């Protein structure tokens, strides 16, 4: 017998374990996973597999965190002062350390910093704080797929603005402007960019800010690759150029300090005219959902950010730069594909002239056969909403990268066919298209 009326109602409604997942969970999509699941990965047993797909620089063991970074964490574990909870937005000391480290972004005070569990959580909180169900945010194409994953579960529509490969992946500002309407809550700008490795000039950043100012649009700046630029290229923090546009800059330890698993990121609030007063409160409330990020890493931040030597960062970016040059040189004259030289981050996009590969109507099939014949796996551009390209990761050891590029070149040579239009127009004969 039910003890009271409520459980009687429950009982009468439920007669079996029919547990549904939430709308939130159901609508959460991870494009990279979906696309990779759709590719048949059957490597050639005669060739060892070379994955140029994994965006984790620690995968191959050639890029490791600095000993100063490791030592800082060892100390904060051993002194037993950081086993408890901290404030949800992060400890004062850790936020002060991030503020100091971020002087290149302009004036930053500890109160402008919110610590998060990785830059992904920073982005999640920034989107969640600014955009409501039914609103839209503008995101780059090609671009990091997480923006869509995060926004769509909140019922926030995503609209893609185009990056232009022929202009070093600058934003097509006219097309971006055409997407803005009264429901646009924010623009996400990723600079330096994943997957393109582009780094914007000050002039271009100013134009982006002008547009944001014209429409009173806040910017979420994904600057996780700040400082991660090749020799001769300078990264400019968006905040240093902004007079009136409020910016949430998302960053963290992950890429530059080579510790993706440590999950330490942050949001820096840039808001000269105090238009983000409510947003600050909102972010502080959102931080309470997780009770704050890992206290051991927080406690280590002052030492990590101050003591990790410049030579460590230099050696990482020099290594990636040399790999970028190597891959570019090996691929630039290969018929049917077109690598685009990056200026920073850890990736290079390579265009496929699909007219020259009639066997592969989509880059997904191209990538799949590249695995089957050459055991080289690159992420298809579709993972970044950008078909007819593939992305290679530049963090792999040099000899592996060289071998992979030689195999990619062989693959292209073996499958390259003269463009049908060339044959028709030029009257070339004896070219077998099939
Ligand atoms: C890796 C990456 C992130 C996520 O960083 P985490 O700190 O690991 O969460 C965010 N944005 C871009 C563009 C990235 O490539």
TrEMBL record:
InterPro entries: Aminotransferase_I/II_large, NHTrfase_class1_PyrdxlP-BS, PyrdxlP-dep_Trfase, PyrdxlP-dep_Trfase_major, PyrdxlP-dep_Trfase_small, TyrNic_aminoTrfase, Tyrosine_aminoTrfase. It catalyses: L-tyrosine + 2-oxoglutarate = 3-(4-hydroxyphenyl)pyruvate + L-glutamate. It comes from the Eukaryota. Its EC number is 2.6.1.5. Keywords: Aminotransferase, Phenylalanine catabolism, Pyridoxal phosphate, Transferase, Tyrosine catabolism. Residues 48-408 form the Aminotransferase class I/classII large domain. Its cofactor is pyridoxal 5'-phosphate. SUPFAM superfamilies: PLP-dependent transferases. One of its GO terms (biological process) is L-tyrosine catabolic process. Pathway: Amino-acid degradation; L-phenylalanine degradation; acetoacetate and fumarate from L-phenylalanine: step 2/6. The modification N6-(pyridoxal phosphate)lysine is found at residue 255. GO terms for molecular function: L-tyrosine-2-oxoglutarate transaminase activity; pyridoxal phosphate binding. NCBIfam families: tyr_amTase_E, tyr_nico_aTase. Belongs to the class-I pyridoxal-phosphate-dependent aminotransferase family. Homodimer. Transaminase involved in tyrosine breakdown. Converts tyrosine to p-hydroxyphenylpyruvate. This is Tyrosine aminotransferase. It comes from Hermetia illucens (Black soldier fly).
């Amino acid at each position: 017998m039910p003890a009271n009326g409520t459980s009687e109602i429950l009982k009468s409604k439920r007669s079996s374990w029919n547990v549904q997942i939430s709308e939130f969970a159901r609508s959460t999509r991870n494009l990279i996973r979906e696309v990779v699941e759709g590719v048949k990965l059957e490597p050639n047993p005669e060739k060892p597999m070379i994955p140029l797909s994994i965006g984790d620089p620690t995968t191959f063991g050639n890029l490791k965190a600095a000993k100063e970074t490791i030592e800082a964490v060892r100390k904060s574990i051993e002194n037993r002062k950081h086993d408890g909870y901290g404030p949800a937005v992060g400890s004062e000391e850790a936020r002060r350390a991030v503020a100091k480290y971020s002087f290149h972004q302009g004036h930053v005070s500890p109160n402008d910093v919110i610590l998060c569990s990785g830059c992904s959580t920073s982005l999640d909180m920034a989107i969640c704080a600014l955009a409501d169900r039914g609103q839209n945010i503008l995101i780059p194409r090609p671009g990091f797929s997480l923006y869509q994953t995060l926004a769509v579960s909140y019922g926030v529509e995503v609209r893609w603005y185009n990056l232009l490969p022929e202009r070093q992946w600058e934003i097509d500002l006219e097309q971006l402007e055409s997407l803005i309407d009264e429901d646009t809550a924010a623009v996400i700008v990723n600079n330096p960019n994943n997957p393109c490795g582009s780094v914007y000039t000050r002039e271009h950043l100013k134009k982006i800010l002008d547009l944001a100012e014209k429409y009173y649009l806040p910017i979420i700046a994904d600057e996780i690759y700040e400082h991660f630029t090749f020799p001769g290229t300078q990264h400019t923090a968006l905040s240093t150029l902004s007079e009136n546009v409020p910016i949430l800059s998302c960053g963290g330890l992950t890429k530059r300090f080579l510790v993706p698993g440590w999950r330490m990121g942050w949001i820096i609030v840039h808001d000269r005219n105090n238009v983000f007063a409510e947003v600050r409160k909102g972010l502080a409330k959102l931080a309470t959902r997780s009770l704050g990020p890992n206290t051991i890493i927080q406690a280590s931040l002052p030492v990590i950010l101050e003591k990790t030597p410049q030579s460590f960062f230099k050696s990482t970016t020099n290594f990636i730069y040399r790999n970028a040059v190597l891959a570019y040189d090996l691929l630039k004259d290969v018929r049917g594909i077109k690598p685009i030289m990056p200026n920073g981050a850890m990736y290079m996009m390579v265009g496929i002239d699909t007219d020259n590969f009639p066997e592969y109507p989509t880059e997904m099939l191209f990538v799949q056969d590249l695995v089957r014949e050459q055991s080289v796996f690159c992420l298809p551009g579709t993972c970044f909403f950008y078909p007819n390209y593939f992305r290679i990761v530049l963090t792999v050891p040099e000899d592996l990268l060289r071998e992979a590029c030689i195999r990619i070149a062989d693959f292209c040579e073996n499958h390259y066919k003269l463009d049908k239009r060339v044959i028709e127009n030029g009257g070339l004969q004896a070219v077998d298209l099939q």
